[in-house]
Design a protein that fits this description.
Blueprint (H helix, E strand, L loop, with lengths): L13 E2 H7 L5 H9 L3 E3 L2 E2 L6 E2 L5 E3 L2 E3 L7 E6 L28 E3 L7 E7 L2 H8 L7 E7 L6 H9 L2 E2 L2 E2 L4 E6 L2 E6 L6 H8 L4 E9 L2 E2 L8 E3 L2 H8 L2
Parallel strand pairs: 9-15
Antiparallel strand pairs: 1-4, 2-3, 2-5, 5-6, 7-9, 7-17, 8-9, 10-14, 10-15, 11-12, 13-14, 15-16
């Protein structure tokens, strides 16, 4: 089996959920869900415990298909256009972010989500451990958005409310960084990842969102990346993400 640093350890054992994530099957949490759903076998035996140890010579299958060792782990930055789904696949045949990249046989999946009607920076990777770190709430990775609002000028009181926390139906939001860009635009940075959170926050203070673009994900900036375009992150950039 291939370890995280690319070396091979004949006697190394890892937990099954981590094994599947390193093999590029899914993120760690998604891999654990696959196991709990009874879709994974270990040496021909159905396993539902993601903490089960996997040895170097184990035969692992998902939905009957063999899973190999860890594939080279990569991270891509993509400028997601409006209308494209931030999922690995869609049962209704709609276009997904995966279709915008040359996967070259790697099992890539999006890190976090952007609504179909939102655009901007999204990451795609086959590194389940990194994906979990970037999306788990306890790591509080900041994400920045440029938001075009309706409803007239944004007042200082409304900006203050966004900064201090907005009451939503699932609780008060955590403090955010907000600044006015003028002409009905704001820049908003949050550390949470609730469903459609930015849109709900802005609507709650009286300003429906007309356009939403994610411009930063942690230390990464969208920069000059054009809609629909992508680039592979450098080793230095990936290490910066791991250090968050």
């Amino acid at each position: 089996m291939v370890a995280a640093d690319g070396s091979r350890h004949g006697h190394a054992r890892v937990r099954l959920g981590k094994y599947l994530a390193h093999a590029g099957v899914a993120s760690r949490r998604s891999a654990e869900a696959l196991i709990a759903a009874g879709r994974v076998t270990l040496d021909g035996v159905l396993v539902t415990d993601p903490a089960r140890d996997v040895g170097a010579d184990a035969a692992v299958t998902v939905d009957g298909r063999p899973v190999g060792g860890a594939e080279p782990r990569v991270v891509y930055a993509l400028n997601k256009p409006v209308g494209v789904l931030s999922t690995a696949r869609d049962t209704h045949g709609r276009r997904t972010v995966i279709e915008l990249l040359p996967a070259q046989g790697l099992r890539l999946y999006p890190v976090g989500r952007l609504d179909a009607d939102s655009a901007g920076l999204i990451l795609l990777s086959n590194d389940g451990e990194l994906a979990n770190r970037l999306t788990h709430p306890r790591f509080e990775v900041p994400k920045t958005y440029r938001v075009t609002l309706g409803g007239g000028p944004v007042t200082a009181a409304q900006l203050s409310e966004l900064r201090s926390g907005v009451q939503l139906d699932d609780g008060v939001t955590a403090p955010a960084r907000v600044r006015s860009l003028g002409r009905g635009e704001i820049e908003l940075t949050i550390h949470e990842g609730r469903n459609r959170q930015v849109r709900r926050m802005c609507t709650a203070v009286g300003h429906p969102v007309l356009e939403l673009v994610r411009t930063r994900f942690g230390p990464l900036a969208l920069g000059a990346l054009q809609p629909g375009s992508h680039r592979r992150l450098s080793a230095t950039e990936v290490e910066r993400l791991r250090s968050l």
